[in-house]
Amino acid sequence: MTLRSSEVRRGLAACLWGLTACGVLGGLLVAAIALPTVGGAGITTNTVTRLFTDLPPSPREDPLPERTVLLDRNGKQFAQFYTENRKIVKLDQIAPAMRQAIVAIEDSRFYEHAGLDIKGTLRALVTNTQAGGVRQGGSSLTQQLVKNILVEGAETEAERDRAREPSLRRKITELRYALAMENKYSKPEILERYLNIAYFGAGAFGVEAAAQRFFSVSAADLTLKQAATLAGAVRTPYATDPSLGPQRRHRLRERRDIVLDRMAQLGNVPAAQAKAVKRTPLDIHMRPEPGGCAGSAYPYFCLYVHKELVNNPAFGHTRAARERLLARGGIVLRTTLDPKAQRAAQRAITSRVSAKDTEVAAEAMIEPGTGRIRAMAASKKYGVNSGNAKNGPSTTYNLPADMAHGGGQGFQAGSTFKAFTLATALGRGWRFDDGFMTPGSFVPSGGYFDCHGHRVNDPNTQIFNASGEGSGGPHSISTGTWKSVNIFYMMLERRVGLCQVVKTAKALGVVRADGTPLREVPTFTLGVNEMDPVTVAAAFAAFAARGRYCRPMAIVDIVERDGTHVPVPPSCVQAIERDVADAVNHVLSGVFTKGTMTGQGIGRDAAGKTGTNNGYTSAWFAGYTPDLAAAVSVGDIRGAYRYPLRDVTIGGEYYGQVQGASLPGPIWVSSMEGALGDVEESSFHHPDMSRFGGGYTPGLEKEDKKRDGNGDDRADGQDADAPDERRSLGADRGYRGGRTRWKKHKHQQQQRQQQRHRQPRLRPPAR
């Protein structure tokens, strides 16, 4: 058959180009008529017959990308991730007006054909030719669904290009898949899939996301006007994007009116109603749908969750699998975030440190015994500064976290590390009142060995006590901790073994913020390693949990697309003995009553340790109750060594020097009071005094005699708030009266001290 009419040629070409499902017979008829036209391409009648009778399976349908939603511990959403803003809904969750509108404008014979609609295609061709533009669709909804599926399923840019290319081969492939889908699914199922996959503009994929984005309503509540607007947007979603200005909105209104006219023409709505709606404005109410963490109310916690999901093998065997899980979305992550604790931490920081300051404060709160992160706050806002300025009120570093979770290199943790030396000493037989004389300065020239057995002495370094710690004299485990005496702890670390202290720290989850190996050097106990608040808070939470260390966790449950719950259990180990942890708590409680944090308690059992670094390069406070642990760091974001915390104004207040108790401590106190306001008070376990009570420190009894005679006379470096040695021993050991009993007890303690110091386990490892 030879085609002589140019009009018929154009009609058949259009029919092949926009092949609409009209059934196998219609497809064969069109192909047979057009055979001479396409014969030059090597297509024969037999080929065409096979094309439309030997159909392939319907295209592979991977789960559509959806939003990944983050919920706090109370079930309230605070963030979402997505590559495509989409929420899949059932057809009965979509307003009837929306279903009618999309069928009317895109495929009015949708319920009549079976995959190919020649009549509809020719009608669209004539209508669009007369109008001089696209007013009606030529491809059926099924074909459009197939195209979207192929684009979504493409794994490379080349595959996506092939799914979109304007070629006869692509249209025939598309048609064959459409016929296969018509055999597989019912019409309502096809319509549901189409409405969930279609792009409507303004970053909204699927009708539910579009309804929320354009009108701040759900798809089930769309009115006629709103439904017609969304149906009009599908054809040219970028040209009618209402978020891109008034010109695009004008185009969208024109498209809405076309949809209303078509619905009236088909009898879906009365003509008068359509005319009345056309006279009204669009009434767009764009609802922000921020994706990622910059738009979250709790950005630092959000960022931690994002990095945890990508980095942690618990959420997928490979990084690619974990990234795909996050990108495809459709899951709900129930997190550990406590909004009350988060607000308390943020208020405590914001009230004392300005976002405009180059000095930054950060805090992390963790639940003892589970590792659940309850709060992550920082003084700067999360995001990019105006003009990409390096220093400003915002930052893209996750300040409370380590580098693996989006943070930076951290700050030296200072004297908070003395807690690990304390725990090591108590675990190796030291008692609360055991101690020794300390000099005014100290050079670590011998006796220090790392965990490889290498000597790591530093004869070129001279250690002094920080301001307020005293310049020397006798100190026990207790007084040396309360006063945070550097030299005492350097000497104690040497006696119990540097490697043993490092092992204790590692058992409590201590790792450097930048992920590199810990620096095993003599000043380890003084906190020369750069840390982050999450790691330090988790380590101190282990003391509160009686030695049970739990890896910090931010996700407790994953709800998959099908509603299946996948719980994420805590990852915990007994890092140190329970009795040793109880003893540590007993000593560190004294920091609030007799030490560097005197007068800054929170009205309940609490323990902690200040951290002031050499040269005031950074300052910390790490503390805890039986119910909550927190760590606060302060340092200059431009570089701690170049910009020490001396002669600085922070939050409008001048500091000659920032110490652990002067800024991080008050932040900790304020935040903990707010976080624990409605939590019933609980107490630490009383330590085993038969194991840890008593002890002997040469020289302390002389200080007692001075106090007996002169009241305030003390040796240089002795804390004015230190306990009376005899009184504490009497209370611990039951000696409550008489100098004879005191002397007898002191002699026994001296003998035990001498025997203990002769034990090989307290000597440095042999080379």
UniProtKB/TrEMBL annotation:
Gene Ontology MF: a single term: peptidoglycan glycosyltransferase activity
The answer to whether UniProt assigns keyword Glycosyltransferase to this entry is yes
Annotated transmembrane regions: none
Spell out the Basic and acidic residues composition-biased ranges. Answer: 700-735
Return one Gene Ontology term, BP aspect: proteolysis
Q: Give the family this protein belongs to, as stated in its UniProt record.
A: In the C-terminal section; belongs to the transpeptidase family. In the N-terminal section; belongs to the glycosyltransferase 51 family.
What's the name of the protein? Membrane peptidoglycan carboxypeptidase
